[in-house]
Amino acid sequence: MTHLLEIDKATRRFGGVVAVNGVTAHVDEGELVGLIGPNGAGKTTLFNLISGFTPLSSGTVRFAGHLVNGKRPNQVAHLGISRTFQNLRVFPNMSVFDNVSVGAVGTLPQGPFGALFGGAKRADEISERTWQALEAVGLTHVADELAANLPYGRRKYLEIARALAMRPRFLILDEPAAGLNDTETRELASFIKRLHGQGLTIMLVEHDMNLVMGICQRVLVLATGRKIADGTPDVIRKDPAVLEAYLGVDA
Amino acid sequence: MNASNTRQGWLVPALIGLLVFAVLPAGLAAFDRGYFYQVANVAMIFVLLSASMHLVTGVAGLLHLGHAAFYGVGAYTAALLATKAGLGFTWTLPLSGLVAALVAFLVALPTMRLVSIYFAVATLAIGQMLYLVMLNWVEFTKGPNGIIVSKGLELFGFSLSGRLATYYTVAAVVMLCVVAISRLSHSYYGNALRSIREDDQCADAMGVRTVRLKMEAFTLSAFFAGVAGSLWAHMTGYISPGDFKFSESILILAMVVVGGLGSLPGAVIGALLLILLPEGLRGMGDFRNIMVGMVMFLSILFLPKGLLGEVSALRLVRQQLGAAWRRTDNGIGIGWR
After folding, report:
1. Spatial separation of the C-alpha atoms in residues B191 and B199, rounded to whole Å
2. Cross-chain residue pair B189–A115, CB shorter than 8 Å
3. Alpha carbons B153 and A114: distance in angstroms, whole number
4. Is A77 in contact with B334 (Cβ distance < 8 A)?
5. Which domains does chain A have, with CATH numbers?
């Protein structure tokens, strides 16, 4: 059986530092996978390798049969992978609606001639998609606000809405709960579960153990660039290598 | 959630049309002085230059310091086609735009991956290079002597070189181009360009083809600058390199910034202000340049987002030109059509 995402011996070096070192992993269609690891384990680098932000030094990443290596982020996005960022990256001087529309425009391109001559049907399609993504995260009531004026928690949902407007097959969330309080984290957890319940394949990097262990079906653990464990939350909790990586005790 | 717009998108365009095509020409005809016609035509040409720079600098966020050079490429294309190939305005108008766009496309190929200040310096260098070609390639461009363009404005053989006809021709071409720029900037295509301005890496991850879109914005803006050059060449009947030097690029940039970066109505207002104000202050002699400088300085100091900033401009366009997809419950337009 082929997997939706196949990572094979992915390696990324930055000078002498090997941030990701021969990681082999996969994600199947419909899974909700967590990626954890201590600081500097290479989680975000692995995300960047998958989304085309950082080129691989060696190894391969395949998505739905397509090679991701050497593709620009926008080409990876067109394959159906969309992502959010660890340090929120919204378009501050654009309205909430316009922010989310960019996700829809990216994958439903409206070229200059489309904008010039008619193209009303295409524009309506983009509008509808944008509105649906805003409805999914519950931000329709602030659609006309500038993104810069939104509180932190809402900007997180704005980023997710923008990613959803791309109608991705695979959504990768980079530390979605960072900076949220317990209540907000719980709300986010149930929101992610709901998205997953609608059939979306999701991978999330997270520091919040409870969040990952609570909602993910499978957890990958990275430490110093290598994959040290891969299994259900129950297995991971008892894995001696994981305990050592996190607590530094000799198992 | 249907798109039931209470659209009132006809009133403002109708008023602008009435002003440009009826009230102003009637006033100009009543006074019938060449100077007034000249000022009106120059103002409209700079409206087009400012609007075209708005697309690349205001919307796509690329600081362009060589815009006047593409205006010059258009003007020289028109002048050379008219004097050497005997072509009239009907042909030089589109060809000037296309040649300017082609030159822009070629120079953009290696420059587009540069970011922020490096891109700005590259466009400065490109502008200087094109200017020096106009100035020093004497056999081809007649260098500092300039070129006399004997062919006035015409359309398919009908002469439009009378004062009023020239006004109408310039007004019609500028209006058409500004409407086109408005469609580009007030659409989801414009949103994609804005996302590149805001955060190009993030836009890339959202599937926006950033390099290609920047190329398109740069090339399209050069096309419109080239069209403005052709209008200038046929309207004034004489062009020289001095019309297209660096300070003209800066003047156009000032129009866009004073009006409001990212705001098309602002770019139009900025152009009108910076052309009409010095003319209006002619009575003050040399003092007028200081006054113009003061107006620019104070407007940036107190209105850093411009006389009509992007947020208000987009709202205005959505409310008054019926460009919104629908309205929110509190009546504010969102999206594009």
Report:
1. 12
2. yes
3. 31
4. no
5. 1-80+171-251 (3.40.50.300), 93-167 (no CATH)
Say which of B183, B195, B311 has its CB closest to residue A102: B195
Q: Cα(B37)–Cα(B34) distance, rounded to whole angstroms?
A: 5
Q: Could you tell me the mean pLDDT of each successive run of 10 residues in chain A, 251 residues long?
A: 90 93 95 92 92 94 93 95 92 96 89 82 91 95 94 94 96 92 92 95 89 93 92 90 77 44
A126's enclosing H/E stretch is: helix A120-137
Spatial contact of A105 and A76, defined as CB atoms under 8 Å apart: no
Residues of chain B contacting A76 with CB distance shorter than 8 Å: 205
Q: How far apart are CA A44 and CA A84, in angstroms?
A: 11
- The pLDDT tens digits for A96-139 are 999 999 999 988 877 888 888 876 788 999 999 999 999 999 99
Does A121 contact chain B (CB < 8 Å)? no
Domains defined for chain B, CATH in brackets: 11-334 (1.10.3470)
Residue-level pLDDT, tens digit, chain B, 337 residues: 444 444 567 888 899 999 999 999 999 999 888 899 999 999 999 999 999 999 999 999 999 999 999 999 999 999 999 999 989 999 999 999 999 999 999 999 999 888 788 999 999 999 999 999 999 998 898 989 999 988 888 888 788 888 899 999 999 999 999 999 999 999 999 999 999 999 999 999 999 999 999 999 999 999 999 999 999 999 999 999 999 999 999 999 999 999 999 999 999 999 999 999 988 888 887 888 888 888 888 988 999 899 999 999 999 999 888 889 988 888 889 999 8
Instruction: Please name the member of B188, B205, B325 whose beta carbon is closest to the beta carbon of A83.
Output: B205
Contacts of B207 in chain A (CB under 8 A): 74, 77-78, 82, 103, 105-107, 166
Is the C-alpha dihedral spanning A14, A17, A22, A27 positive or negative?
negative
Closest CA to A75 of B38, B210, B304: B210
User: Contacts of residue A131 in chain B, CB cutoff 8 Å?
Assistant: 1, 335
> What's the gap in Å between the CA of A121 and the closest CA on chain B?
8
Nearest to B219 by CA among B100, B134, B62, B314: B100
Residue of B nearest to A89 (CA): B202
ipTM above 0.85, yes or no: yes
C-alpha dihedral sign at B241, B242, B243, B245: positive
Distance, in angstroms, between A119 CA and closest chain B CA? 8
Contact residues, chain A, for B205 at CB < 8 Å: 51-53, 73-74, 76-77, 82-83
Residues of B in Cβ contact (< 8 Å) with A109: 192, 209
Residue B335 carries which DSSP code? Answer: S
Interchain pair B206, A102: CB under 8 A: yes
